[in-house]
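Internal tracking record. Fields below are filled automatically when a chain is submitted to the structure queue. Please do not edit lines marked as system-generated. If the sequence contains nonstandard residues, flag them in the REMARKS field before resubmitting.
Queue: standard
Priority: normal
Entity type: single polypeptide chain
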Amino acid sequence: MLSEQQLARFDADGAVTFDTPLTDAQLADLREALDRLFPPADADTVRRQPRCARTADFLEPALVDLMQMPVFEAVAAQVLRAPDVVLNNCALAKTYPTPDAPFTFEQHTDVQYVLADLQARPRHIVCGFFIWLDDVNDRRAPLMIRPGSHRQIAAWRQQQRVADADNPAVRGTLLDDLPPLDYAPPQPVIARAGQATVLTTAVIHGPSVNVDTRPRYTCHLSLKPKGFDVPHSNPDKDHARRRFIEQLRPHLRPNRQHLATT
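SYSTEM-GENERATED OUTPUT FOLLOWS
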């Protein structure tokens, strides 16, 4: 559960990092699962693209256990101000080290809201978690964010009545295509193995290059208020997400299957 101070930080910045009950043994099992799911470091695909990702296509037992941990349901219910929350999606990323490369990063939003969405009860937004399966320092591909940018964009959209013609949808938007507002400078998210960062992907964020000597392992888990959905701009991806949740349900413990409601 988050403290009142952490909840206030989430509201203002769009992201806050907290401790989870993940053990060293669980973290080791999760990293091993990602190693099995992703190619070896010397593979041609890795040389071409050092950041490998997968979305909604895995049912490894260690990952299923991670998705059904009560801590993520509890924190999502807090930040969404929702009595009931359900799983929305799950993705994995392994960012291989490229210590000789320059440190660069992307900046985008995955979805955009208006202030009314942020103020609703339950909130009309999706809650995301970056679960750090190993330490993340300022060189090991930290997530970069612009704190508070989600609120700036939401206020601009509401003022401009953008939502009247373009309802919120899961749609990647690069920084150059976002409103030219006075955003905070990008900051790295630093975390220890076993911590998680809860955020809204309406905040400007993006992956960075891993200029360290060890890979970065992360799981991106998202939950939403039960009965709420944000349309996806890509129907095929939306269908895959829903099918994944349906396939996941029988793999959850009986007392956790309520999370897999599409």
